[in-house]
Amino acid sequence: MAGHSNKLGRTKLGRTPANTAAQDAEQSNQATASEDDESMSDQPDDYLEWVSRAGHHIENNLQDKRWAALVTAAQPRCLSLTDAVGEHQALARLSLSVLWTDDIEMARLNSFFRSRSQPTNILSFPAAAGVIASAQDVFLGDLVLSYDIIIDEAHRAERPPVDHLSHLFVHGLLHLTGHDHKTDREAEQMEALETQLLAAQNIPDPYQEITG
């Protein structure tokens, strides 16, 4: 389903998708500015910062503006799923960044990090290796999602796009906390956890085949 890589380290891809050099230069020029003078109103329109009820932070970069309506619709579910994963992993506070992009950028990233030229629905870049058991404050890593392929998958599966997106979001989030599906046993455990977390949001089992 989803691509998985740990090559990104502690970078925040959601904020710096393809302009790392330009972003670094801009940050350097602004280094002397007081952080107290910064406000969310200074952020670009394509940057969204979410804070869940449990205090977890998600930085979002809408590189592809087609995501806007769907991301807005999915926000409550994504935040609730983040809280649920944080509770499951015993994480008092977590943060992650998300890049909402298209097939072109996804194919570029997939080729660069995984040597696969085609796009995929989601890529996850954990900031730490292994299962994160417990921590007070941790940056989990980055998620990248492609609009084109996710919308196409939802339509072909006859599922609401917001349901499919919620599934991929929690799938990627679990990757960031150390879960994987390299073996049949791992896949079964991960799918069961995803299904359980999604059911709490009234989202049907994504692994159940739809019959006509």
Structure description:
With 212 residues, this protein is α/β, with parallel strands linked by helices. The chain is built from six helices and six strands. The protein has a six-stranded mixed beta sheet with strand order 1-5-6-4-3-2, with helices on both faces. α2 links the parallel β3 and β4 (94-101). The longest helix is centred in the middle third of the chain and has 21 residues, at 68-88.
Kindly summarize this structure in a few lines:
It contains six helices and six strands; from the N terminus they run βαββαβαββααα.
Entry keywords:
single chain; 212 residues; alpha/beta; 6-stranded mixed beta sheet; 6 helices; 41% helix; globular
Q: Helix tally?
A: 6
**Overall geometric form:** globular
- Main sheet: which strands, in order across? 1-5-6-4-3-2
Sketch the major β-sheet: 6 strands, mixed
- Rg computed from alpha carbons, rounded to a whole number of angstroms: 17 Å
Q: Distance between termini?
A: 24 Å
Q: SSE order in H/E notation? A: EHEEHEHEEHHH
* Helix content bin: 40-55%
Approximately what portion of the residues adopt beta-strand conformation?
A: 15-25%
- Structural class of the helices, strands and pairings? alpha/beta
Q: Runs with pLDDT <50, length 5+?
A: 6-12, 14-41
Average residue pLDDT = 82
